[in-house]
Amino acid sequence: MFSRFVNFNKRGFHQLSEQEILALAISSEEDDSRVFQSFAENLRDDFPDTASMFAEMAEEENEHRRWLIELHQEKFGELIPLIRREHVKGFFYRRPEWLTKTLSVEKARKQAVEMEAQAYRFYIAAIKQCTDASIRKLLGDLAQAEAGHLSLADDSGARNLSDETIGKEDAKERRDFILTYVQPGLAGLMDGSVSTLAPIFATAFATHDTWTTFLVGIAASVGAGISMGFTEVASDDGVISGRGSPVKRGLATGIMTTVGGLGHALPYLIPDFWIATYVAILIVFVELWVITWIQHKFMETPWGRAVFQVALGGTLVFAAGVLIGTG
Length: 327
Fold this sequence. Notes:
Blueprint: H1 18-43, H2 48-76, H3 97-100, H4 105-129, H5 133-151, H6 163-195, H7 197-207, H8 210-235, H9 246-265, H10 273-298, H11 303-326
C-alpha cells in the first residue's frame, strides 16, 4: 500500500522513450484484458449477457496488444522492455485480480467504463510525447477505439446491453443480495435483539448488578449468534432454494444475532444500574426501529405490519424479562 504513494525507483511519464511508451501500452492492454476476462468468468453463471460483453472487451484488448506488438517488432525488434504501470509515477492504478472477484455486476460495469476512460487519456498523452508518424497513428487509432467504447457505454457502465437486460441482471443481483445477506442477517438481528431481552432484563432487575447483567448479556448474545449461525448453515445448502452460499448466510445470521444482543448488553458496562438500564432501553427502541426499517426497505413489508410485528414481539419479550426479574 505504502509503495503506491512514494515515487522511489519510478520514472516520470515524460521521461519515457517511444519504445518504452509502446512497451507500457502493451503491458497495460494485457492487464486490462485479464481484468475483463476475470469479470467474464466471475459473472458467467449468474449474468451471461454481461459476461459475454466482458469477454468481447477482453478480446478487443488482446487485439490492441497484438497491434502494439507488431509495431514494436517493426520499429524496435523482438525484445520488449519490461515496464508496467507500477514503474511510472502517477500512472493509473488497477486493483489486483483477486479483488475484482468480489465486485458486483454494477460495479464491474462501472469499473470497465473507468478503465476505458483511463486508457483513452493515456493514449492522448502518449501521442503528444511521440514524434514517429506510425506510432502516433496507432496510438491515435487506439484512443479513438477507447473513445468509441465510452460512447457506447450508458450511465451504468454497460456496453452493448439493452435496458431490459441490464434491468433483469440488476434485479437478479439485488435478489441474490437479499437472499444471501439481508434475509439471514435480518432474521439474526431480530432473534438477537428480541430473544436476549428476557434474560438480560430479567438478570438486571433480579440482581441490580450491572457487571453480572453484562456477563449474562454477552453469554446470551454470543451463544445465540453461534447457534443461529450453525442452524442457518445446516438448514439449506442453497442449491435448490437459490439462497446462495450457506457459509455466507451463516456468517450473516450469526454476526447479526450477536450484534442484536450486544446492543443492549453493552450499556451494563456503566456502573450505575438505572443509567445503564435507561440507556439499554433506549438502544432497544433504536434496534426495533432499525429492524422495522430493514423489513420495509428490503423485504417490502408495509410499514404498519412491520411496526406491529416488531413492536409487539419486542414489547412482550421485554415485559416478560422485567416481570420475571422483579417477580
